[in-house]
Amino acid sequence: MTSKWAKFRLLMWKNYLLQRRHPFQTILEISIPVLFATLLVLIRSLVSPEIFSVPTIYPPLPLHNFHQHFTKLNNYQFLKYTYEIAYSPQNNEIDKLMEVFKKDTRTENVTALASSADLELHMIKSHTYFGIEFPDEYKFLKELPDNIEYSIRFPAELRRTNWEVNIYYNWHTDTLFPFKQFGGARNSHVSHDGVPSGYYIEGFLSAQEFLFKAFSRYKNKMNIDLNLFPKIKMRKFPYPPFVYDGLLQALEIIVALFFLLSFIYPCVNFVKQITIEKEKQLKEAMKIMGLDSWLHWTAWFTKCFIYMLITVTFMTILMKVKWYGEDNPNSVFTYSSATVLWTFLLLYSITTIMFCFMLSVFFSKADIAAAVSGLVFFLIYCPYSLIIMNYDLISMKLKVVMCLFLNTGMALGIDIILRYEGTQEGMQWHNIFKPVSVNDTFHLGHVIIMLIVDAIIYLLIALYVEKIFPGDYGVAEKWNFPFSSKFWFKVPEYVGVRDVNSNDVNHLNPNYEHQPKNKAAGIQIYNLRKTFDNNRVAVEGLNLNMYEDQITVLLGHNGAGKTTTMSMVTGMIQPTSGTAIINGKDIRRDMNAIRSSIGFCPQHNILFEDLTVREHITFYSLLKGLHKDDVEREVEKYVKLLKLENKIDVQASGLSGGMKRKLSVGIALCANSKIVLFDEPSSGVDPGARRDLWDLLQAEKGGRTILLSTHFMLEADVLGDRIAIMSNGVLKAVGSPYFLKKQFGVGYHLVCVKKDASCDSMAVTELLRKYIPDVKKESEIGTELSYLLDDKNVLVFQKMLKELEENSKELNIESYGISLTTLEEVFLKVGTDNLEDESKPSTKLNGTTTSNKYENEIENGLDSNTFLVHKGAQLYLNQFVALMHKKVLLSWRNLLLIVIQMIIPIAFVSVLMCSFKALYENKNLPKLDLTMDTYKPSVTTIEFRSSDQSETIENKIFENYRKQFSDLTSLEIIHDDMIEHYLNKSKKYLARVNNEYLFGATIEKSSITVWFNNQPYHTSPISLSLVHNAMLRTICGENCSIKVSNKPLPYGAESIVMMLQAGKNLGFQLAFNIGFAMALLHSL
């Protein structure tokens, strides 16, 4: 018996040969991913990163230029806004506050509204500059509280941009950090925060500053001289030297897509190659001859893995090597670890292979499997489009669940790697389980774990579906088989087998010949029964023995149960009840051991189209356990016996149909298989080759038990030592050809050929009755006169025929012939129910049956040359109609393929439009409280040089600023220069500084500098609010505070329309999806 390792090496050899015979396909499988990686390298070469070799230090920003912001706003905006400020609710105290605000800002047009709803409606209709919304409860207050709250309301769209409308340029109150970074400082080209979020240039910070001043005056009960307080100015934290890579944004769009396109061809090809073996029943044939299913999958995995390993290695090298020289010292993935990238891609490749395995088990047709696999492989990338545009709104758990879609997980992983590239830290082994952003909990570790989980799930699905849906030729398990004790403990299952000796059964039926006593039974069938799901009984209680050194022929009409019986014996189909003992082993529990001694030749040819005759015999001989030293001798033996010497190195695809059939017979016989089953072995073979096959089977039956089914009666008569006839799943008769003819034969046929019409048939009949009184004329057609002779009168045949010959001239008989009952007649009598309803054959001569059909056709004139032949345009029209009729029939008989062809374009466009609708539906921005609690954890840095006078204003402001922090770890007090301190900290811990060191203040006697980290979106108003609260407490006591919120208006109608018109690359995506769908259709 061949070892598992030897079978594995044999399968790998087979896969290697099949792959070698398709060099172009092999080149494509490797070169397509490499080509896309090369395209990424070329794209990378087009844009050189911008290098900032010195620290970026920004100047301070004033907050008093209120009118300037509005003036610039109308220069940018396509929709002109009114220089009006609205507020709500209307209240005497609020009116007083707003009078101070109006005076300070020199704004004449300030409008009061009754409620927040009225305020929103008025601002939308009047295109107001901005609004101030106090809580509606303030309407009934007699005095404003010390702890005041308000929201500043600007339009959702940023107006100080060069874009008329862009969904990205808004206040981003639903987002704290940009989820993508492209290296260096955000909006490094401007000294303010830039867009988004635009707090400075839109005028938000100025409004916040003037509202603070108004409230300070309102609450200044002690009449403190506010002019003595330091002036406030804004300033961005400095940024250390950095490299800005503007290409990263484009790479995030195309890298994942390129990887998808890189692997789609190998995926489709893998699925097709695996399914071809299933479609041609090669897989089941190999299993019948001793191949374990797990070895089959392992060999395919190894073959696919090797190609993927080569591909991934080339891709990693291309994307990590710095090809561009000193002017552009970058690669596609400049900062990320090559081993991390290689491991990620390799893991993705492994999961892709498992995905291919999973898809292949659902199909029995390779072309359909290939088309569907390409479609599904693309569709599981689509959820990524929904996720990436709503990244910050989607929970970590949902992102993890979405990674169950292989390509969505891959795209999310690539996105994380590129985001780490933007931080200039790159993806390293130490940060795999660390999110890129502090407000993000999703990291590459999640993706890697989910890819492993995906691979396991896909493999389990493949193995499970293979068991419950093995296709048309496998043994189907019940859906709950993993939960049965048989599955876990290999408990033998005995169903419907009585203690019946087959010999005893045969004694009970007179149509069963006695069993030979000097022969060993190679196959013993007991009570074998098979019922299909529609309750149709295919085989009913079959009991039959088949003996060594004999050929047992199984006869029966179509649907009699022959193929089902052979399939149960070989393990291709599981019996409903009963069993078979093969060489002493039970098919219910020893099938694996039995298969090592089985040779099988089904109705179809079990040939690999790309293997040669030599390779086929070698492969199957080794698979059955033949020692490798004997293989060459076995090849030479069967090539000679099959008369294929001249075709020994010709691939199966180059053989004729008859040669393929002969090779299939040789495959079944090679390696000295003790049990050999042939299902119509001579079908499609010419008469000469058929005789050769008969001689081969007769010569090779020694030491073997051969079971053969055929529809060719002469073949059964020549080869059959014993013949079993089945009808409707029941064994009707079994025995040698002579026994069956004796048992069911009608005797002998005497056929006399008359010279002319003067022959007197009555005279001939009278002559025969002298010897056989009850002789009857069977038929008289034309010049043939036929009689049926009972075989009990065989002793008088010699005298009777001698007298017939002597009187032939007087009787006008030209010749005569006599033949025994043919096997065909026995089959018609035994194998067909209700014989009395069958029409009698018109003539039987030498065992050949004919009918009057041809004569009737002649009488009806059907063979006469009376057809009308069309020419010219009518001929072309007829041909067109015939071709269309053919196509309609083919389409009707391949409805699944037609449905797929119709669904693919609709599905691709529908998915795109649903994604677009989900992304661009009207989602108004939420209200955002501008407090330190918004960013946790965070560190605030205070630069303060203490004064000798402890009661100075700046000292009080510092103390009140410090008291806002209950957690001392979130406050860092320094006494040296803020710029130098921050740059030193950034050089050492850039990632942490960008994510945590968000706020700061330099408190001096004449001025306070409000520092803010511009990497997040909303740090500038929060940092300003911290200073405002410190100063407010200094003015009116520690109980005073201001809480500011950013509450953008709903998107305007014009913006919504323009968003839909802009489409966010919809045209390209639509064209791409339609083009991809059409390409898949073309492949069908």
Structural write-up:
- By secondary structure, the chain is an alpha/beta fold.
- Among the domains are: 266 residues, no CATH class; 283 residues, no CATH class.
- The chain has 37 helices and 29 strands.
- The strands form seven sheets. The chain has a six-stranded mixed β-sheet, with helices on both faces. The chain has a six-stranded mixed β-sheet with strand order 13-14-15-10-16-17, with helices on both faces.
- Helix 32 packs across helix 35.
- About 3% of the residues have low confidence.
List keywords for this structure.
37 helices; 29 strands
Element layout with pairings:
Blueprint: H1 4-20, H2 23-46, E1 50-52, H3 66-76, E2 82-88, H4 92-105, E3 110-112, H5 116-126, E4 128-133, E5 147-153, H6 204-219, E6 231-236, E7 242-244, H7 247-279, H8 282-288, H9 293-320, H10 338-360, H11 366-379, H12 382-389, H13 396-402, H14 406-422, H15 444-468, H16 485-489, H17 502-508, E8 521-531, E9 537-547, E10 550-555, H18 562-570, E11 577-582, E12 585-586, H19 591-595, E13 598-601, H20 613-624, H21 631-641, H22 657-669, E14 675-679, H23 687-700, E15 705-709, H24 713-719, E16 722-727, E17 730-735, H25 737-744, E18 748-754, H26 761-769, E19 776-781, E20 784-789, H27 797-806, E21 813-820, H28 823-831, E22 843-845, E23 848-850, H29 853-859, H30 873-892, H31 895-920, E24 928-929, E25 939-944, H32 953-962, E26 971-974, H33 978-988, H34 990-996, E27 997-1003, E28 1007-1012, H35 1019-1036, E29 1041-1046, H36 1053-1062, H37 1066-1083
Helix pairs in contact: 1-9, 2-7, 2-9, 4-6, 6-35, 7-10, 7-11, 7-14, 9-10, 10-14, 10-15, 11-31, 12-14, 12-31, 14-15, 20-21, 20-22, 25-28, 31-37, 32-35, 33-34
